[in-house]
């Protein structure tokens, strides 16, 4: 029995020598960190509008199979927009970095947004709330809507060797190469808010953000129901779309989303016209001019308007409607700015989508944290879809930005 | 023999380079992350587009003209490159894109020289037309090509041949050096200055002023196009706002570089030095963790300072223009005497 | 007549040039010998300048034949003209200010080695040219860094650089000081001896008698006559130019000089002129004589508030002039006719009446509201008084002839009903007809008791008009001369500092 | 080349008072008044041309409702904001200083100021905003007027700086009139700046524009300032040597543009119910376009405010027709640009034919 200690020591030595062979093993410190990290409860966080900050989508729609060539299909066919709407659900990540699984606390995370805007300020704030819970070394960079600068910021971020880059790609297609670059540099990447091309998600851990198409399909249904209610027995119901600035997925999601939805949901609704106000897309005066001209052209046939922005655009729309003395037109828009919610409250805007800016940033940060904590990684997670109407608009005050 | 050459006037003539060194030194001292090969590779890569665009734009300004269409030409060329690639292959689509830039320049040049409408107005018009064409052509969505070939090209353009030098940087350097050389060392090059300095002098000297100005606009179109082409090849996608910020940026840089809007003065190298200076400043600001508002603010201040400085120099010059040296001596003597008389 | 071979270097046969509604040059034929200085005279609008522009290749649609060195030449572009050895020195400077002297001198023909410029050679060539006109400047200086007189000489050097066989000079002395004129004449003499044919356009008859061999007179686009200079008098030339005889040019009026109106004491603008003191009386025409650079114009600019004085006082009718801006001086009745008509004198893109009223806008306004009607009578009166042609107040000044532009400029200052009128080169580059009118109206004005300060480098003009002449040299007042002592010679001596007190 | 034709026609008449000599430069026969009439009338001729086009299209059934009173009202309503900014811009162009590129941030900045001050008192807020706007104008006017700095570049720089200031001061936030603790009455008034409509028909911005145009036209043509501005614009040095305080005149023109920009800024801020730094973006070029189409030449000293109004109307009518035709927004840009160049070209040519080549 005197040999026993030696045997024990020998076993211990062997075990220690072999330990690397069995999976990853964490130092005590890392263990502790992981424990502490898992203990962090971010569900208590609220955004400025009093909503639960972290509100991932509950919806579990089945992801349809990708048609051979979506572009061959008609624009009114939902599947025509497959690569924009369902991007990322069925990609096979390549060369994905493995999660350290040593806990999210104290990580270094760099967030690169698309540009300066009050929305962005709020979005960064949301991410910051989560980052602070995990005591991250966190900083946000903004290229001020300039793609060339965004590339430069990405280079600089890579150079700082962070544990994760959170990126809002300025452009869905340019995102592919940006993702490749970050991935090649071996830096974990998570993209959010703007849905990139499917290919980009090959090089990203995943994507979180608003389900623009989904939201507008919901909005479309609510809108359609209201239109039918207000125009009983009408043969066709003419509607118009004020589009987003060209060159981004919202430009399509917020017009063709509803169009392709209504094509099946309520074929009676007929698209009269769609246009993006030029030269200034989000100038109320320009929008007013556009809509005034539409009212001249289509008169009473124009029953509904769907706007891609619930502030300047919507205000312009209602200015035009008031001048024409039209109160029968059902207007819906993408939200949720203060002006938009005010319009809903005044019973002018019928409905807007709930687009939490803080939640957007926060969900991205939280997803990253989960990955640090070694949890499984969802390729894609949407923000909760919700349509705000007069019924519940009060709940969303004060606005986030 | 009377000649210029006081240290001060020299410092004034090469102001931009002085500024360049100053900013460089300042940033290097204050931010450790700044003075690194990696950081400068990043900066160089970042400025290639605007630097390339600035080449032609500067020549136009040397001719005393203005080209507001460059921003849209960048995007236009980019969209053509990616949009036509499936049909023409890159060789073809790039050729078309650059040619497109040249044609826009040609149209600008002809309108300016033949109808004698101020170039500010002409190019404002072509700018609007191009903006529409871009959206029309692209259907409102950015265009990308996602073949392995394009990724290969992109990676190559971004790969370091030497420290600091990537192919895309090299392209810009070659263009800058070539044009700067033409401007300084060839008759055609000097003609731009003479035309910009005084159109009728040039005309009387038998220089074809209209052709010279048109050539400048064509060059501007071409370099803007090249800038756009390279940029989209690097990012493998042609975005519709690519050139949006370039116009004001390049104008400011060119002025800060010391190219006079009145024409006859300046150089490509100066403009690029100015871009480099601004970019170093911007990077520094970001490294300090400050936002774009600070960038914009300082860009404005520098521009304002330069414009005011130039204007004030002329103002002073005119005030003392034609003073008689002997009288100034006499005055000094008298005042000395006056001082002596004081009791 | 020069002694070099007398083969014609230039022959013009039945040359005509028409503008819409105009025959500017009407069937003109004449020839210029090699080594000859051939003067071309005629009033503004007589067609001289057009004729010369044809020679310089400014038009591709003239009719008739031009032979150079015996061979017919088509001069349809400046390049062609230059290739045929025609050199043109323009009245207005044609230099590019921001670029270097070298490049101005060698514009369009900068020396090359292979494809590229040969800077060393360019610099050397430029240096030679500069010294050929007696300038000692760094050829790399930009034009904007040298004086206007230097620029004028650079202009000449530039043309000589093309070593022309025919040299055209259009009022080359108008912007030159006397010493520079002398230098120019020396150069001309040298060119003669090198067998270059020189066409010399000038209103300044004395110059012509000094250097020309022959003179051709033009009127209304037609050639009147060509004479040997030895066989013609000033009066004859003037007669041919205006188409009728002129008698004694300046006849002495009887003067009624009142008491002091303008009194200047120890006036200085540092670096421009120092310690200037003088009195000018009502109804007096006080001539101010000096070489260019003597500070005459600078003095005038201070006397009218355009520039500030550093020291000294200006009194008008015994009271200090109130205020410091030119507007203040204007309102107290001080008018200043600037020497530079096109740049500082008139807004050439505007109409006659706009220009005439431009100095009295405030007076024609009440409560900030401007009334054109109130100014119109004065404008029409002045148009008739100065017989401005065409007598149309709404005519764009830029489309008037030089003579009439100058009259409009005078009208502008008369409109101010000045107590003191300061004239700076009132008849520079103006034809004799206009000159006479301007002179007579100056005298009329003086007769009404207005004080006139007359700055002029046209000595006969000074001698002819002034009651007294103040002589300035190097920024100081040297002395004054009563008119009976004044002669072109005496003034010149005093001004150049030979003879006379200091 | 500046090929000045030989003035023909003076000496003989001058000397002997004889009859008209051989030939006269025909260009000189056209009188100024005629030209400026052609110039301004030309603008309206084009405007009428477009109206006729619209009418024609309606007749052929290609578009409907073009000639309705409502539609005409829509057109003028739509150009009201640009028109307001353009009136001020016109003075700068007229003064020979091309354009004021600091209009956008002037509009944005004054919007912020107004909202910030709203909590004290509506009228104070308006006054404050205008005050700040005028300060920007004074700065621009001083630098450009006294030191003759290149106006485009200088105002561009000021535009940057102001943008920086706005975003630094309000830390990249936009502010809402009713969230700065201002009394509802003030908010209501502020809301009404753009929305107030007389007889429920004519909007306040439209009224403001018309007033500004009328006053502007009067100032430009009938006041001593206007006349001085004209001379300054066509020849600054001659103006100076005529005792005109050029610096002050130029400065005033920049103050005027700042003033109208402020008015425009308040209107647009009221319309979009938010103080944001991007309010007013693009109004620099919009205004220039209106001014230039309105027949003002960048050479200065030529054109009228009425012309500028015409320019704004042309733009409005054009947009209206294109939308009624259902032309896509993308093609609209192309047409707009082409028409712009064409109109300016025609204007330039007509001026040239009248012997007023300012090229």
What's this model, at a glance?
The complex is a heterotetramer of chains A (401), B (343), C (502) and D (359). Chain B is mostly helical and 343 residues long.
Oligomer: heterotetramer
DSSP helix count of chain A? 13
Strand content of chain B: under 5%
Strand numbers in spatial order across the main sheet of chain A: 2-1-3-4-5-11
CATH topology group of the largest domain in chain A: Rossmann fold
Strand portion of chain A, in percent? 5-15%
Q: Tally of extended strands of chain B?
A: 2
Strand order of the largest sheet of chain B: 1-2
Q: What does the main sheet of chain A amount to?
A: 6 strands, parallel
Helix share, percent of chain B: over 70%
Helix content range of the residues of chain A, please? 40-55%
Can you lay out the helices and strands and say which pair or pack?
The complex is a heterotetramer of chains A (401), B (343), C (502) and D (359).
Chain A: H1 4-18, H2 28-39, H3 82-85, E1 108-112, H4 118-133, E2 137-141, H5 147-159, E3 164-167, H6 175-184, E4 189-192, H7 198-201, E5 206-209, H8 212-230, E6 237-242, H9 249-265, E7 269-275, H10 284-298, E8 302-307, H11 312-323, E9 330-333, H12 338-345, E10 349-353, H13 357-372, E11 380-382, E12 387-389
Parallel strand pairs in A: 1-2, 1-3, 3-4, 4-5, 5-11, 6-7, 6-8, 8-9, 9-10
Antiparallel strand pairs in A: 10-12
Helix pairs in contact in A: 4-13, 8-9, 10-11
Chain B: H1 7-13, H2 15-30, H3 37-62, H4 70-115, H5 119-138, E1 143-144, H6 148-158, H7 167-185, H8 187-197, H9 199-204, H10 209-235, E2 237-238, H11 246-257, H12 268-287, H13 292-320, H14 325-341
Antiparallel strand pairs in B: 1-2
Chain D: H1 11-16, H2 26-29, H3 32-59, H4 69-94, H5 103-117, H6 122-147, H7 151-169, H8 184-195, E1 197-198, E2 202-203, H9 204-222, H10 224-234, H11 236-240, H12 246-272, H13 283-293, H14 305-325, H15 329-353
Antiparallel strand pairs in D: 1-2
Helix pairs in contact in D: 3-14, 3-15, 4-9, 4-12, 4-13, 4-14, 5-6, 5-7, 5-12, 6-7, 6-12, 8-12, 9-10, 10-12, 13-14
